[in-house]
Specification:
Elements (H helix, E strand, L loop, with lengths): L2 H17 L6 E3 L2 E11 L1 E5 L7 E6 L5 E5 L2 E5 L8 E9 L7 E9 L2 E16 L2 H11 L6 E3 L6 E6 L4 E5 L2 E11 L2 E14 L2 E9 H5 L3 H5 L5 H21 L26 H9 L4 E4 L2 E2 L4 E2 L9 H5 L24 H9 L9 H7 L1 E6 H7 L7 E7 L5 E7 L3 E4 L2 H7 L8 E3 L4 E2 L5 E3 L4 E6 L8 E2 H9 L4 H8 L4 E3 L3 E2 L3
Helix pairs in contact: 5-6, 5-12, 5-13
The protein binds zinc ion (2 copies).
Length: about 500
């Protein structure tokens, strides 16, 4: 064991004693450290993305056992049959130093700050190896199923196997480190640095353990493009950072063993993929900055291209109107159109707007056409045939948010996403169907489709919050990131003093 590894192992031991738990996020030196899920399963491989052999150190979090491996590693859960992964939560109470349960952490927002609140989870004594057996027990005993939790498991055994066949056993949680990028769990993206491996809910999870700023710099370029003008990159960095903090407050992965997942469910995180100096500079220049409104975090949703105006969050997800997400004009020429009206929506979709200086994906998002056989549309809706299409409602951006399809039964879709899916993954639901239409007394629009349903639209994505094509355009015109953000999220402020230590 070399000196560096020994020091590291001792440090981890100390950290383990201090937290004595599966503590996830923490605030360290003014930085919020997060666990971001990279891979999960019963067997996870760590491999080199090129011919250089990765050098990977594996240490137990709660003991000074550490080993350095060279080359490909395979990590397997070993004694799953002997382990209980599921239990029933009896109660959660404030954390004390001598608890009888498990430490759990929860994010809350108090007095304009993010707080990591420690809780003590007390479980019923009966535990289960599988989710099915826990559910059966719940049904038999009348315990509500929503009390089933994955147990915060420590000391389950994993077997680490190298290509040469060497084997070593470790107890979870593990701290894994690689200076060089490694492929993890078959994902063809290289990740470097610190990883945490745990067993949760009958399988292992491998998380990237990184500061929030590093997380943001693994999101920005995959969202707005690493070629975007600097002020657009900065605006995207703040939107991504605020969205991440907002997601943390939902605590929706609290029971999964990590803080954020790396897919679209949370925000797509790809590590250093496409990361360049411009993105690093944008993240650095806006370090710690998030959007707030009246002392609360402002949900900062964003999308590829609005198509003219942005959409109200209420029309897309329901809920209460949010004053900074009601929809704004993005392309100035769209201002005079009432896009909630069929005729005006059609007129605007037919209006050509300047595409000079736009990349091909921007042009494709700005204006598009597609056609789908009527029979395929019917099939996508689960219908044998389709005789009429009714547009019940268009939102502020012109997106269709409520649509009926009349076949052997009526099918009603009230989600822009489902409407896009039905039309074969249309880029947005801001489109019109070519051909004649009639407006009914109640304002709904009726269409009798031909053999091929041909549609023409503008925009890409849900249309709520910041429009990335619009942000790029504003930045290219010399608008600052602060102005871009206050345009798309009116009434919000930028705050950078919002982190507080665990209580
Ligand atoms: Zn997620
Ligand atoms: Zn736009």
């Amino acid at each position: 064991m070399n000196c560096r590894i020994l020091v590291k192992a001792l440090l981890y031991l100390l950290m383990g004693l201090l937290s004595a738990s599966l503590a996830a996020a923490e605030i360290r030196d003014g930085q919020l450290w997060l666990e971001v899920l990279l891979a999960s399963g019963n067997k996870i491989e760590f491999a080199s993305p090129n011919s250089t052999e990765p050098v990977i150190s594996v240490s137990e979090k709660n003991a000074p056992i550490s080993r350095v491996f060279t080359g490909r590693l395979s990590i397997e859960l070993f004694n799953t049959d002997k382990l209980a992964f599921w239990g029933f939560l009896n109660r959660s109470e404030p954390w004390t130093s001598q608890p009888e349960g498990y430490l759990a952490e929860k994010f809350t927002w108090q007095d304009s700050s993010l707080v990591i609140q420690k809780e003590n989870l007390v479980f019923e004594e009966t535990t289960f190896p599988g989710l099915d057996s826990a559910r059966r027990y719940a049904q038999e005993t009348g315990i509500p199923e929503n009390q089933i939790r994955s147990l915060p498991l420590i000391n389950s055994t994993v077997r680490v196997t190298t290509d040469e066949g060497a084997e070593q056993y470790f107890e979870t949680p593990l701290l894994i480190h690689s200076d060089r990028p490694v492929y993890i769990g078959g994902i063809q993206l290289g990740f470097a640095g610190d990883f945490i491996l745990k067993s949760v809910g009958g399988k292992m999870v491998v998380n990237h353990f990184i500061p929030l700023e590093q997380y943001v710099s693994g999101v920005v370029q995959n969202e707005i493009g690493n070629d975007a003008p600097m002020e657009a990159l900065k605006a995207q960095a703040i939107a991504a950072r605020s969205h991440a903090v907002d997601l943390l407050l939902y605590n929706r992965h609290q029971n999964d063993g990590y803080d954020l997942c790396s897919g679209t469910h949370c925000q797509v995180y790809k590590g250093e993929y496409l990361l360049n100096d411009a993105v690093r500079e944008a993240v650095q220049a806006t370090s710690g900055e998030i959007l707030t409104i009246k002392g609360k975090i402002a949900p900062s949703l964003y999308h590829s291209a609005c198509g003219g105006k942005t959409e109200s969050s209420v029309n897309v997800w329901g809920g209460d109107p949010l004053p900074h997400l009601l929809g704004v004009t993005c392309i100035p020429e769209a201002q005079s159109y009432d896009l909630s009206q069929e005729s005006q929506a059609r007129l605007w979709i037919e209006t050509e707007v300047s595409t000079s200086g736009l990349t091909s994906w921007e042009k494709g998002a700005l204006s598009w056409e597609k056609s789908i056989p009527r029979q395929t549309l019917a099939k996508n809706l689960g219908l044998a045939y389709l005789s009429r299409i009714i547009i019940n409602k268009r939102g502020f951006s012109g997106r269709i948010t409520d649509m009926s399809f009349i076949g052997e039964v009526p099918i009603r879709l009230t989600s822009e996403y489902k409407i896009r899916e039905a039309f074969g993954q249309a880029k947005s639901s801001f489109f019109y169907i070519r051909g004649p239409y009639a407006v009914n007394d109640d304002g709904s629009v009726e269409i009798v489709p031909g053999g091929t349903v041909s549609i023409k639209g503008k925009g890409s994505g849900h249309g709520v919050g910041m429009c990335q094509v619009g942000a790029r355009r504003m930045a290219a015109q010399g608008v600052s990131y602060r102005e871009i953000l206050s345009h798309y999220y009116p009434g919000t402020s930028i705050s950078s003093d919002w982190m507080r230590h665990a209580q």
